Each structure stands twice: as structure tokens, then as C-alpha cells.
Amino acid sequence: MANSDRPTTVIADVYRGTFIHSTQTTAVQILEDALLGVDTQGKIAFIGKGKELDKLSQTFGFSPSAVTQLKQYEFFMPGMVDTHIHASQYSYAGTALDMPLLQWLNTYTFPVESRFKDLEFAKGVYTHVVKRTLRNGTTTACYFATIHTDASLLLGQIANDFGQRALVGKVCMDRNNSVKHYKETSQESQEETCRFIAELLNKKYPLVKPVVTPRFAPSCTGALLGQLGAIAKNNHLHIQSHISENTEEVKLVKELFPESESYTDVYHKYNLLTDKTVMAHGCYLSDKELDLFRETGASLSHCPNSNISLCSGMLNIRNVLNHKVKLGLGTDVAGGYSASMLDAVRRALDTSKVLTIQDPDHDTLTFEEVFRLATLGGSQALSLDDQTGNFEVGKDFDALRVDVAAPGAPIDLIQNEDPKILLEKFLNLGDDRNIVEVFVAGRNVVPFTEPTD
Q1: pTM score > 0.90 for this model?
Q2: What is the dotted CATH code of the domain comprising 11-78+391-446?
Q3: Does 3.30.450.40 match the CATH number of domain 80-382?
Q4: Domain spans in the chain, listed from the N-terminal domain onward
Q5: Cβ of 393: how many Cβ atoms within 10 Å?
Q6: Which H or E element spans position 437?
Q7: Are 83 and 344 in contact (CB under 8 A)?
Q8: Is 131 exposed, middle or buried (0-12, 13-18, 19+ CB in 10 A)?
Q9: What sequence ranges are listed for the domain Amidohydrolase-related (predicted)?
Q10: pLDDT tens across 108-163, in order?
């Protein structure tokens, strides 16, 4: 008789142990001795208590003996979300950090990105960055590629092949006086963006989507920005770009767009601020500009490593959160020298503490708050929180199995610690050796299965 009430969901895997995640109201919620079931579609089918094992096994039709039991110092947390990373800059990550933004772009970035017309070169770099970020626990990445359509499509294919959830953007720029061979005409940019979107969507990759990507206002004419705003609106697409990263850039935008009230107003004028927009940096946004972000539903990506490494500025996250603007974290490779979201967590905490040193009244961020930014906050910033970001029934099981006591990893446990302490130690001290398994949509994607040609 129980079979008639049994859900039609077919359970693929059940895990028992500690689960740590964020909710809208709680920065860190800890579920001890919990049971979580994943169906054959990779979605979370149920979450219950360990003592409910017999009942849940009967309800969902799985064998209690098939449950995977986590070890004492293990826990599951949501996969981390990198809301801003330049896949095309990965080859020189960790170097070339000796110039401010605009000179850095002209000297290092644009010459390297121009090489991605060579698909073999692109394949090598993109394969490395996808594998590295997945190994580091990034289950979702919002990627900048280059102006080259075919190479950008290749990045989408590689992310799909290795099982990473990704937004992939073909970069658009019709203004570049410093490296003249690395730009498009407005018409080329519009046409190639449309081709990129159509071909990527036609692939029907389950986890990879296109994102409309004007590089930033200084590299785009108003005509191109308007075209890209229309493309995004007509196709209901995500949008990504940069804003207010350093003072020289902000001054340049005022010179290039004198009719606009602010940097934010430039994007707003061309319909590029929507509830599916994520803008990187925002160090110098005014309160009025943050209000416009909130009103439009646009998001910010906080990239603290890059902000510091290029001496660009420091974003006051507390002020952004007080304005109720959606916010996630980004590595911003290669302005940020690390492709690890754990580094982004640590640099975000460091930045907040420096602001407190400068102003003792500043409300310093807690590690719990930054944990939420790296997971649920990132999914909200990318408007993917209906699919991922925390452990809720119906969402995809994007998760990291963390072993704080993993052999050879950099954490020494001196005594038994509660789960919250284990989480804090992992965020502050851990690395990829503590990440035992990486799940995207229910599938363990690390170690890698190399795709076949």
C-alpha cells in the first residue's frame, strides 16, 4: 500500500552526515546527521534527519545499505560560484601585476587575448582553467572569453565536457586605440555576438549558457552598447561587464560619455542594467548608483584579489549589502592572481578588515557572511539561485565534499571541533586537497573523465 504514495522520483544517491549551507535569512546553517537524496536528474529529492532513514527509504524506494556515510571531519557544502573570471587570461595568472588597470590591459591583456584566434592555443588554456577551477571547488563560473567567436564557443564546449556550470561570454569591443588589431567594428561585434549566442544555444548544453559581454564602457561605443542591450533583451540573456574599477577608468568614462550622469548611468541608458546583469568591481560607485543597481535588480561581483593586486581600490561590501544589492565573489583572473574561490573568500575578509583599520566604526564582515557570498550570494548574483547555491529540494546538487582532516592537506586538527569551526578552518586554511569530491548537478566531476574527440 505504501507504493501507491511513493514519489515517482528515482533516487540515484543518498548521503548521510553534516551539511553546511546558507539560506536567505541565515548566513551559515548546519544540518548535522542529515540525509540528502539526489535523483537521477541530479536534483535534490529530499532532505531529512538521520533518524528518519527507514521512513525515507520506504518513501523514496532506496536501500538503507546504499547510503554513503560521511566521515567524522567531513561535510558537504554548496559548490562555490565564481561570478567573474577571465578564462583567456589564465596563462599569465600570478604574473604581470606591476601596472594599474588601463596600462595593464594594453601591455599584457590585449596582446595575450589576441592570440585566441588560434584554436589550439585557446583549447590548451581553456582546458587548464576549467579543470583548475573545478578542482578548486568552483562548480559555477561566469567566464569572459575573447572577441573570437569560435574560441568562445570552444570554451563553452570544454566547460560542458568537464561538467562545469558556466556562463560564457564572447567579448565585445569596437574601441581600442592601444592594440589596434584587437578590436571589432560595431557591425562585426553585433553579428558575431548573435552567431555566438545562436550556435551556443543550438548545442543545447544542459549547464552552459551565453552571456552578453561588452568588455567595459571605455572599449565600446554607445552604438555597440545599445545593440548589445537590445540583443540581451530580445533573447532574455545574462549580461556581464566591468564598472568603476579604478579612478583613472572612471575619469575616462566621464570623458567618453559626457552626456551620462555616472558610470552606472551609461549602462542603464543602453538597457544593460537588468535583473540578469552582473558588473565586476564597483569600488567607486556612489550611493545613488547603488540605488540604481537595487532598482534594476543588477548585481555586483566583488573581486578583492584583483582590486588589491592592480592597486585599483577597495569595495565596501557592507555598504553594498546595506543598499540591498545582490552580491557575489569573483577571482577575476588574471588581475587576481589566484583561480581559487577560497582565495576570494580570504581577500574579501582581508579587505573588510583593512576598511575597519581605516575606520574603526566600519562593520567588519564575518566569515559566515563571506561564505554565503561565495555560494548562495554568487548564485543570486548570476540569477541562478532557482537552480543552485544551497541545499533545497528541487535544486541541482552542486556540492563539495570537504574533508578537513584529509591526509597531506594543510590543516592540522588538534582536538575535536564542531562543524562551524571545521568550516572556518577550511575557509581560512584549506585548499583543493581538502576537497574530496566535486558534484555538479549530482555528478561527481573530479577526478576528471577526459573528453574524447
Answers
A1: yes
A2: 2.30.40.10
A3: no
A4: 11-78+391-446, 80-382
A5: 11
A6: strand 435-440
A7: no
A8: middle
A9: 76-445
A10: 999 999 999 999 999 999 999 999 999 999 999 999 999 999 999 999 999 999 99
